[in-house]
Design brief:
Elements (H helix, E strand, L loop, with lengths): L15 H10 L3 H4 L2 H5 L1 E3 L6 E3 H45 L7 H13 L3 E6 L17 H9 L4 E4 L17 E9 L2 E10 L12 H14 L8
Antiparallel strand pairs: 1-2, 3-6, 4-5, 5-6
Helix pairs in contact: 4-5, 4-7
Length: about 230
């Protein structure tokens, strides 16, 4: 014996989709039959109790409102985080602008980055610097492989420390599990590398966005350019 309800005489072949389309195209139906809104009983999603069509609609609206509220809270949180990052970047840039002696810039940049962004280890290494800066920590030698690697980077490298030479420039390289390496360049010329290190292997991940790191690198490169050899 079939358990499927039979369509009333004269409406054979009408599907639920046909009914739904009719109601959607004829909103005045419920104005003409307002009593249906209170007599139709549905199952509540919050239990097995029966509720009217009006109550079910209200519950659906409340669910949508809760979802929108959660999205608004998330947007506010992201906005606050972005504002905090912008403030830190502003203080970092201000530190650079207030440094009168260009030779002090690399150390001041490193200190500011570590303080503002809670970076455990950081360093800057330049090649092609003016000879007056010979002997400074930021002009110590870098191999041809490092220079070639830095020049090949179209964006900062973020990922695990796989024994990179640049990691050895950091104060405590043995504790560095992840790295961010940011090329310093003017135009097409790469003249240095900004290296950030963390003991957290997930701090700098390959899938993370690099736009913010690129901005830090661009500001650093522009500020450090006076340390380079004068153009011939």
């Amino acid at each position: 014996m079939s358990t499927q309800a039979e369509a009333p005489q004269g409406v054979q072949g009408i599907t639920e989709a046909d009914i739904a389309q009719y109601l959607a195209n004829n909103p005045a139906f419920f104005e003409r039959h307002a009593e249906l809104l209170s007599t139709v009983q549905l199952t509540s999603p919050h239990g097995q109790r029966a509720v009217s069509l009006q109550e079910r609609q209200m519950e659906m609206l409340r669910e949508r409102i809760r979802g929108l509220e959660m999205r608004i809270v998330e947007m506010i949180r992201h906005g606050q985080e972005n504002l905090a990052i912008a403030d830190r970047l502003h203080r970092y840039t201000r530190t650079i602008l207030l440094t009168a002696d260009a030779a002090e810039l690399p150390a001041r940049m490193v200190d500011s980055l570590k303080h503002e962004f809670m970076i455990p280890q950081a360093t800057i290494r330049l090649w092609g610097a003016d000879s007056v800066h010979a002997g400074a920590a930021f002009t110590q030698p870098a191999s041809a492989d490092v220079k070639s690697f830095a020049s090949s980077l179209m964006q900062p490298y973020c990922g695990v420390n796989a024994g990179f030479e640049a990691a050895s420039w950091l104060p405590e390289p043995a504790g560095v599990m992840s790295l961010a390496m940011i090329p310093l360049r003017l135009g097409d010329t790469t003249f240095g590398l900004l290296v950030l290190g963390s003991p957290d292997p997930t701090r700098y991940a390959a899938e993370m966005g690099t736009e913010f790191l690129m901005r830090i690198g661009e500001v650093a490169a522009a500020a450090l350019s006076p340390l380079l050899l004068p153009a011939p």
